[in-house]
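During the first year of the project, the team set up a workflow for recording each protein of interest as an amino acid sequence followed immediately by a discrete structure-token representation. This format lets reviewers and collaborators read both layers of information side by side without switching files. As required by the reporting guidelines, we include two representative entries from the current panel. The first entry is reproduced here exactly as it appears in our internal archive.
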Amino acid sequence: MFSRVRVSAPSHVHAGNYDIEGSIGRLYGTVGLALGEPRLTLEASPSHSVEVEGGSRRREAEDLARLYLDKVGSRGCRLEGVKIRIYEEIPAHVGLGSTTALALSIGSSIYRICGLEPLDLRELAVTAGRSLVSALGLYSFEQGGLIVDGGFVRGERRPPPLVFRAHVPGSVKVVVALPERPIAKILDIKRREDELLARMPPMDPSMAGWASRVVLLGIMANAAEGRWGEAARWMGEFNRRLGEYWAGEQGGIYCCSEVEEIVRAMVDAGAWSGLQSSWGPTVYGLTPARRAASVLEAARRAVERVGGGKVWVTSVDNVGAVISSF
């Protein structure tokens, strides 16, 4: 049993789902990227009770800790409680993958304290009810990079398989913007997400076919050959066209005019593409490193015009979570 475990987990951004038609027998299929910043960083140590210090989601973290304590108890680990200190956190419910990162970080730390190795991240995800539709958060935590999962099978309670993963070099930068004004709208959508998804019509087969072809030939093949400009441009077109499918629920191709303006500003400044992550309002631009400063400045100006928010530049995380035991 270890006395202290530290976990540093990446965030991630979503590019889209390539098959919501389902006639092949699988649904969704997700494309996305793990990000170096922001990160979730926490430390966990054995305790006589469940305690959480730091961060804005203490109740949720406590519930997750109790869930995993029950799980390790069923496997013979007599861990009475755990003290968790959260040093850095990923903004919640804005398209950066905060919830899966929190669950897997807490689960990994408790399992590691108990010496339950090797970690089965799929088991940890399913225990918390995560990664059953999209496994982008699971594979971002496990290994990072550019990720494509294979969608889920109806009625099966297991994460979609990883079908493609690529290391993204440091010559590719990601400029991320989080405008403040649309956050309330997105939080309302997130509260109603299950209802919204249940009433969405199946994707037109021609759209699912186009999206699947773009993922295979436009994104995966170009990434495999290191043609990052082409891969990024196809990711942007993929994201934009999928916005047409979701337009009835989010009010347009993008969630809001703020996101549309930021995407336009990034591309006009030289980014290969600009994308909305999930429901938004997080926006990200994929750009060659030599243009990152100009894209960053254009994004800052656009965010100021639409009411303020946060903007930063980062790289793709190609490692996944770093877990240290002491």
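The second entry, processed by the same pipeline in the following quarter, appears below.
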Amino acid sequence: MVKLKTLFRSKDEIAAYEGLVLVWPCAEKISSHLASMIPDDQQSLIVPVVQEAIVAYHQPYPFYMTDWERLAVYLIMTINFTTHILAGKMNFHEVAKSCDLPRKMTPAFIEDTAKKLSMELEYA
């Protein structure tokens, strides 16, 4: 399995990722699993997506967002990217199921969070 941290280039990128992993240890395993699903020659493409997802996790929203919903935002963005790269070979829910997500991160919870933020799930 790919260690996602090894794909980052700068100390700031590594620090932002480690901050997320400190709060959500499951994020490292999930992110590494998603990176390993992507063909080797495209794995570095996930780095900017993870960076954007971390920014989205931390950004202020005009309404209350629980920590679980914020994690769902991170997952939606990274799983959407993975399903896009896989070009329909697996849908969003198949990729999510393969990630061994925390129990609370059910398909219904992820979909509710996506609706709350008007986000789309790729190939759902």
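For the second entry, the following points were noted during internal review. The chain has a mean pLDDT of 89. The chain has one domain: 4-116. Both points are flagged for discussion at the upcoming steering committee meeting.
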